[in-house]
Amino acid sequence: MQDWERLAERMVETQLRPRGIADERVLEAMKSVPRHAFVGPGMEQSAYGDHAMPIGEGQTISQPYMVALMTQALELHGDERVLEIGTGSGYQTAILARLAEQVFSIERMRALADRARRTLEGLGISNVAVMVGDGTVGWSEYAPFDRIIVTAGSPTVPESLLEQLKDPGVMVIPVGTQGMQELKVVVKEHGRTTIRGSGGCVFVPLVGREGWETE
Ligand code: SAH
After folding, report:
1. pLDDT tens digits for 177-208?
2. pTM to 2 decimals?
3. Is residue 109 included in any domain, yes or no?
4. Which CATH number is 94's domain given?
5. Measured between alpha carbons, how far is 34 from 31 in angstroms, rounded to an integer?
6. Which residues carry out catalysis?
7. Residue with the nearest Cα to atom 19 of ligand 1?
8. Is the CB of residue 170 less than 8 Å from the CB of residue 75?
């Protein structure tokens, strides 16, 4: 798509910066990842709009602001190993891949995982591993992780994810009902875990052993 850089730039200046996204590395990543590559055919033109969008299988790609807010909360410096639950389109994965060393991403729906892998490969993003499975139990083979991001709504903070978070480490996760959640920022430091709320949000349900039983 022609001229997407201009749309991405405008997205950053009108949707992200005025709402308090101030981490320049996050803003730069949001400018440089082609969001239109992660949406279905015919939807490219509206990919940079201020909203979530359907990506098939009843799932959605999050609103740009939510992607930026969650990424900023992770406080990435570049040398982190990040676990992501809910690959979806792979867009959030691509943003993380620019800002961290390695991203391990889990998606429960094979069709979405396959498509995300292809999109990421097509963009030359290679510091990402995508697995099909239940992310609520984490990915013990590569644990512990410096950062964990969950992009689906959970009833609680899954115990397995808390265990697989490094000390020091940060996890962001929407916690609440299936219809509405609060974005929680979980910080592990000096052997202690603290959780603070960071505003309301709406995500599709996290379905798995330590999440919801069904959608
Ligand atoms: N971050 C994505 C949006 C994800 S939507 C993006 O940028 O496009 C949430 C995704 O979480 C959906 O694709 C859904 O299938 C997935 N999901 C739900 N429960 C899951 C689980 N237990 N493990 C892994 N993925 C899960």
Report:
1. 999 999 999 999 999 999 999 999 999 999 99
2. 0.98
3. yes
4. 3.40.50.150
5. 8
6. 62
7. 206
8. yes
